[in-house]
């Protein structure tokens, strides 16, 4: 894995630990060019991020045709694959991310307009 990718990931991790209750989400989406599944995954993920995560997300989209070394380092065997690095625990979602909002509790995200239970 190239040194700049490791250093960038380490810096984002350290920043997220300092962020306290305003923690950031660090996401990486692996796609294969402009395939229909990749295009849907990007659109679905951006929609979820804009509706629920505001500015609290660092999203990186990696085309494995252009950066195969990054995919190899993260052991990507299928695309599209979304990896949630932070907050812990790390999670992987495979597919076009349709219905991702149904998995938000595993994503540790709550919709902005929903009040917490008392």
Describe the SSE topology:
Elements: H1 3-18, E1 25-31, H2 36-53, E2 57-63, H3 68-73, E3 81-86, E4 91-94
Parallel strand pairs: 1-2
Antiparallel strand pairs: 1-3, 3-4
Please tell me about this protein's structure:
A 4-stranded mixed sheet has the order 2-1-3-4. The chain is an alpha+beta fold. The longest helix is centred in the middle third of the chain and has 18 residues.
Share of residues in helices: 25-40%
Query: What is the N-to-C succession of helices and strands?
Result: HEHEHEE
In terms of per-residue confidence, which ranges show pLDDT below 50 for 5 or more consecutive residues? Answer: none
Q: How much of the sequence is in beta strands? A: 15-25%
- Main structural class: alpha+beta
What's the tally of helices?
3
Measured distance between first and last alpha carbons: 46 Å
Mean pLDDT: 77
Shape assignment: globular
Radius of gyration: 15 Å
Record the strand order, biggest sheet: 2-1-3-4
The main β sheet shows up as: 4 strands, mixed
Number of strands: 4
Give the key terms.
118 residues; 3 helices; alpha+beta; 20% strand; four-stranded mixed β-sheet
């Amino acid at each position: 894995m190239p040194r700049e990718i490791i250093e960038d990931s380490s810096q984002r991790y350290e920043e997220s630990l300092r962020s306290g209750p305003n923690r950031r989400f660090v996401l990486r989406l692996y796609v294969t060019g402009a395939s229909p599944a990749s295009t849907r995954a990007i659109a679905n993920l951006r929609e979820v991020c804009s509706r629920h995560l505001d500015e609290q997300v660092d999203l990186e989209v990696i085309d494995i045709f252009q950066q195969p070394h990054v995919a190899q380092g993260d052991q990507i065997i299928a695309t599209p694959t979304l990896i949630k690095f932070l907050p812990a625990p790390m999670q992987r979602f495979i597919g076009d991310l349709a219905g991702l909002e149904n998995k938000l509790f595993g994503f540790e995200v709550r919709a902005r307009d929903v009040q917490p239970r008392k």
